[in-house]
Design brief:
Oligomer: single chain
Order of helices and strands: EHHEHHEHHEH
GO cellular component, one term: cytoplasm
Number of helices: 7
Keywords: ATP-binding, Cytoplasm, Kinase, Magnesium, Metal-binding, Nucleotide metabolism, Nucleotide-binding, Phosphoprotein, Transferase
Bound molecules: adenosine-3',5'-cyclic-monophosphate
Organism: Yoonia maricola
Radius of gyration: 14 Å
Function: Major role in the synthesis of nucleoside triphosphates other than ATP. The ATP gamma phosphate is transferred to the NDP beta phosphate via a ping-pong mechanism, using a phosphorylated active-site intermediate.
Protein name: Nucleoside diphosphate kinase
Number of strands: 4
């Protein structure tokens, strides 16, 4: 089925001017960008977005990293968009990511891993609503 998923191009990637190369990977995989904006998160916003990870040892490092530079938040649409996006991103740790994936080609480490993508339909809906109003989604 046609789905929507939420994506973040993270600070390590925007800083290295990789936004276009990452978007090209999404588009080559058949995903359409139906919403997109470049923003810089506040610490409170980062902590809220990553709230499910608040007890993890890497939480503070993760939030500090996510506010360190601008990010690009996007909604991607396509057939099985959630799984397709996860395939294009590759494994969380770039050392485990398959050849040709975004994280294999661009990620620096498990933390500075260039992209975030929703892991399930419920989280996709929540994450999209966190950053976008309905009017901003243009299919
Ligand atoms: P993301 O999909 O954005 O969701 C949670 C993030 O936590 C994950 O990507 C990783 O970038 C980050 N993360 C996971 N494990 C670690 C770790 N051991 N150290 C730092 N960051 C991590």
């Amino acid at each position: 089925a046609i789905q929507r998923t939420f994506s973040i191009i993270k600070p390590d990637a925007t800083k290295r001017n990789l936004t276009g190369q990452i978007v090209a990977k999404f588009e080559e995989a058949g995903l359409r960008i139906v919403a997109s904006k470049r923003i810089q998160l506040t610490l409170a916003q980062a902590q809220q977005f990553y709230g499910v990870h608040s007890e993890r040892p890497f939480f503070d490092e993760l939030c500090e990293f996510m506010i360190s530079e601008p990010i690009v938040v996007q909604v991607l649409e396509g057939e099985d968009a959630i799984a397709k996006n996860r395939e294009v991103m590759g494994a969380t740790n770039p050392e485990d990511a398959a050849p040709g994936t975004i994280r294999k080609e661009f990620a620096l480490s498990i933390g500075e891993n260039s992209v975030h993508g929703s892991d399930a339909p419920e989280t996709a809906a929540e994450e999209i609503a966190f950053f976008f109003s309905g009017l901003e989604l243009v299919g």
